[in-house]
Each structure stands twice: as C-alpha cells, then as structure tokens.
Amino acid sequence: MNDHLHTALSLAAQGVPALPLRAGKLPFGNCPTCARNACSGRPNMKTPGSCACPRPCHGWAAATTDPQVLNSPAWAPVWEQAAAVAYHPGGAGVTVVDLDDVAAIAWARENLPATRTVTTTRGEHWIYRGTMQSANAVRPGIDVKSLMQYARWLGSGAGVTAALPDVVRALTVKESPAARRAPQTLSAPLSGQRGACPHRTPTYLERGIAMAEQRIAAASSAVHATVYRTFLAVLSAHGRCGCLTDAHAARLFTAAQAKGESPRHCTDAWTNALTTLGL
Q: How many other C-beta atoms can be found within 10 angstroms of the C-beta atom of residue 89?
C-alpha cells in the first residue's frame, strides 16, 4: 500500500479528515467534472467531503474520514502522485498555529500557553483543542489554520493539547468601523480584575509589553488593525489577573501614537478590546 494512503487511512480511523497533497504542499486541482464550478457551485463547502465528485476535489473540502473514499479506485491515481498528506484541523476539532520561523516561535513562547507541538520544515505547529476561523499572516510568520483550511500532517508531535486560548482567537479579530465609534473615555484600564495570576515572574509581563510595543512600531500598513489586535492580544494574556496597570496601557498608547494614531483611536481600540473580552 502507498505510504501516504496508509497515513491517511490511519488518520481517518482516528476521526481526522485526511487528503492528499501534490508537490509544493498544495491540494490536487479540481477534476474536469468540477473545473470552474461546473459541479453546480460546490454544495455545502463548509463540510469536508461534501462534493459528490468521486475525486479529491475542492482543496481542503476533499478531506474525509471515509476509508472507502480514500481507498477508492478514483483516488488511486492521485495517491500515486501524492507528495504528502494533509488534514482538516477544524474537522478534527483543533486549531493549528503555524509558526514559520524562529521569530514567530519566540513570540509564541512568550505569549501563548504551552500545548502539543509538531516540528515543521521551517518552524513549528502549535495545536490547540477547539476550532475558530482560519486566517493567514495574522502576525509576521504566523498563520492560523482551523475551519475551512488544511495543514500538512507531520506526525502527532509532543506535549499535551491545551484548550484554545483567547489570545489565539484574538489574532484573527479585525476592528469594524462601527467599533471605532465606541465612547472614547477610558477609566482605569482593568480595575476590579483580580483573577489568578499565571505569570511566574514580572519579566513575563514586561516582555509581553515590550513585544507589543515592537509589533506596533513594526507595522508598515493597516496600523489601525495592528493596534487593535495588539491591544486585544495583551489583554487576552494579561488582562484578568490585575497585573496590567495604567503605566502599561500608557506605553502601548505611546507606541500607537508614534505611528500616527490619535489618542481617541487608542482609547476606542482599548475600550473595544476590553468589551470583546468581557473585561
């Protein structure tokens, strides 16, 4: 049996929807029957395996846990050409934070809770239990893969799979124009928030603030969105234990204003982030 097919069948037996990849880590193209949406618009494409075509068409949505489909004669020629195996994270109930370089890994180690980790060609996949919308380039060198997306299978990795944290969900949140019209008055940023402190040393918080300042300073476009996402990430990581102070918020506001943001926009972005997180 083809090694890639064997891997896909093993994944399917564990409830992980699998699909073949061709060279370049890309899904196989649609077959002639389905080319240019000739199959009537790809019905229910939020669900893997929803196309009636017997071939592995439609990218991530070809992923399936059905061994009869994976091992069918229609798929046999594709497995012979396959260069790798992928899976649908959302269909497996997980989210993959794809860290593409050393800098991205360093950021994750400072800002994300430890979880199951898989080594990739250039970086790491951090896998969390839970699903969310997928998004590319949420930060330099970082993609989030979950619903309606695929990830290359590189083994089960090491470590215990942690629950999907708010800080990862915050990476894909974009501020809407309506949100910018929120009241601009900012009281003490986090008064009353006194949950259990997860920070082992003050250095953890200091590094998080410093990296947030650097993220804002490095923004070359979409500064509004970068500021909001950065505020959201900081509050997700540090906003519930009472460690975050007015002085920390002031540092972030200063960094944002150095990029041309107005005091009002800084206040609106901070307030909206607090509201989004229920703080």
A: 29
Percent over 90 (pLDDT), the chain? 37
Rounded to two decimals, the pTM is 0.63
* 3-class secondary-structure state, position 22: strand
- Which region, left, alpha or beta, applies to residue 134 given φ > 0 means left and ψ of -120 to 50 means alpha? beta
Query: Would you say 134 and 149 are in contact if contact means Cβ atoms under 8 Å apart?
Result: yes
Helices then strands, counting H and E runs in the chain, come out as 9, 10
| Per-residue pLDDT tens over the stretch 46-69 | 445 555 677 777 788 889 999 999
Calculate the average pLDDT of the chain: 82
Query: Would you give the DSSP letter of residue 206?
Result: H
Tell me the C-alpha distance between 223 and 133, whole Å: 22
CA distance 213 to 215: 5
Tell me the three-class secondary structure of 91-149, residue by residue: HHCEEEEEECCHHHHHHHHHHCCCCEEEECCCCEEEEEECCCCCEEEEECCEEEEECEC
Query: Is residue 243 within 8 Å of residue 275, measured between CB atoms?
Result: no
Contact 173, 235 (CB under 8 A): no
Rounded-to-5 percentages of helix, strand, coil across the chain: 40, 15, 45
Q: Closest Cα partner for 272 from 164, 193, 189, 172?
A: 189
Confidence bin at 244 (pLDDT 50/70/90): confident
| pLDDT (0 to 100) of residue 16 | 95
Would the pLDDT of 243 be above 60? yes
